[in-house]
Amino acid sequence: MAKAKAKKKVTRWSDGSVPDEELAPNERIAHEIVSDKGDLAPSVQKIMDADLDDEGRRVALESFRDSLGEVGDPNRDPQVAIENAAKRG
Known about the structure:
Elements: H1 25-36, H2 41-49, H3 54-67, H4 78-87
């Protein structure tokens, strides 16, 4: 018997149903990432669900986004981006 495929979590920032100007700043960054590279939605979701305050979430999202063009950047792993953001301050 074939395994059922897990349903993709639909969010305000991922499904495109909410205009960009109505998204919170962190949601805009998340939307920008998944709009450009949809396969990164699980990684972005991990950051969005992380136990971070808004500033920490912004730092993690920006670190993750900025790492995408950099070979070997450890922040390409969303968990590393989350941990680094949690250590700030």
